[in-house]
UniProtKB/TrEMBL annotation:
Native species: Forsythia ovata
Pfam family, one: ADH_N
Keyword flag Oxidoreductase: yes
Family: Belongs to the zinc-containing alcohol dehydrogenase family. Quinone oxidoreductase subfamily.
Gene3D superfamilies in the record: Medium-chain alcohol dehydrogenases, catalytic domain, NAD(P)-binding Rossmann-like Domain
Name of this chain's protein: Quinone oxidoreductase-like protein
Membrane-spanning segments: none
Keyword tags: NAD, Oxidoreductase
Amino acid sequence: MSSSIPSKMKAWIYNEYGGVEVLKFESDVAVPEVKDDQVLIKVAAAALNPVDFKRRLGKFKTIDSSPPTVPGYDVAGVVVKIGSQVKGLKKGDEVYGDINEKALEQPKRFGSLAEYTAVEERLLALKPKNLDFAQAASLPLAIETAYEGLERAGFSAGKSILVLGGAGGVGTHVIQLAKQVFGASKIAATASTGKLEFLKSLGADLAIDYTKVNFEDLPEKFDVVYDAVGEGDRAVKAVKEGGRVVYIAGAATPPGFFFVLTSNGEILKKLSPFLESGKVKPVLDPKGPFPFDKVNEAFAYLETNRVTGKVVIFPINP
């Protein structure tokens, strides 16, 4: 153990399930141990995802690791220690990733909303050089979910897609990946009135105001519908015969399917050229980033369901 790594750290923690009020900012949390296949990251930035508040509310407590819990899935930071079996990373590497391989099954009790977090090497990738830590932290869970959903739906060049919730954390990346990586022929996406131009700036050909238009009543149907909101039956009405509907929220209606991301650093490595070229961009909500001592306020904002892109926490180790 190098002397520069303390035994205690600052972290956000909750000892019981509940609302934002169960979150506590503590300064004497034990720095996590590093297993053979893990690295210890000195955290520079973290991001919040809906899974963080659903977990905190106890929505999947039957398969969750039990509190006390330091929340946080998305991380960006610097490797300060490596386990004995780590091959591809070294001390000083700037990395990012989603620290929980399975989002809902026994996620780590020591998450990314802390000064240090321990993560398996296979879940991480080197941070693209053109992105700062806050931008990098915004990406992993959302961009991996976007990519895996498109892959599972068999999305490919020349196909059309409708993205429900196009301005959210996942939706912003579904639009960009469908266009830049997969070669979509047409991209439609839904959002509220003030976000339609933003959808077009991401690459949407058709921006649909869900406050005024029922997307399922449009005459045009799509090869793939990616539902990042949880529209259930409505989503199926917008898909072509033989098309696929991807759900990441709510209940799936056949022929749609529901999936939960498996975190994988290989996806981030594959997407690195698109991030480094600027073809795919991180999207951070303009209200952020929130400083480390305001994580409770960041959660409260996320839970309004009005966020554009991602809520990021930065700086964590100034």
